[in-house]
Automatic annotation (TrEMBL):
Protein name: Uncharacterized protein
UniProt KW Repeat keyword: yes
NHL repeats by residue range: 67-106
Pfam family, one: NHL
InterPro entries (alphabetical): 6-blade_b-propeller_TolB-like (IPR011042), NHL_repeat (IPR001258)
SUPFAM superfamilies xref list: NHL repeat
Keywords: Repeat
Membrane-spanning residues: none
Keyword Repeat annotated: yes
Organism encoding this protein: Rotaria magnacalcarata
Length: 107
C-alpha cells in the first residue's frame, strides 16, 4: 500500500488481486525496494520470483525466477531478500536453496 500525505486510505501499488502467480498477483511478499523513479521491486517467496512494478502499473514483470520453485540457475526457492549493486546486478537471497544468486539486470 502507498499512502499519500494526508490521505485517509492507501493505494494498492503492487499486487492486490489475491495470492497467486499472475502478473497482477503476489504470493507471500517478503521484501521490497522502491527506486528513485518510483519503481517497486518485490521478492515473493510463495511465487519464487522477484518482480518489478513501474509506478502506476496495474501489473508487474518477473525479473528473476520462473514463478515455480526450483534449483536451476534461473530458478528460486523462497527468495527472502535482495540487493542491487552499482553494476546493474541484483543479488537474491535464495532461502530454501541455501544460496545467494547474482543476476544481471542490464541488457
Amino acid at each position: 500500500m502507498k499512502w499519500k500525505k494526508d490521505a485517509k486510505e492507501g493505494i494498492v501499488a503492487a499486487g492486490g488481486q489475491g495470492k497467486g502467480i499472475a502478473m497482477t498477483q503476489l504470493s507471500n511478499p517478503r521484501e521490497l525496494f522502491v527506486d528513485r523513479l518510483g519503481t517497486i521491486f518485490v521478492a515473493a517467496d510463495g511465487s519464487h520470483r522477484v518482480m518489478r512494478w513501474p509506478e502506476e502499473a496495474t501489473q508487474g514483470t518477473v525479473i528473476v525466477g520462473t514463478s515455480h520453485r526450483g534449483r536451476k540457475a534461473n530458478q528460486l526457492a523462497c527468495p527472502w531478500a535482495f540487493s542491487f549493486d552499482q553494476h546493474g546486478n541484483i543479488y537474491v537471497l535464495d532461502h530454501n536453496n541455501y544460496r545467494v544468486q547474482r543476476f544481471s539486470l542490464s541488457g
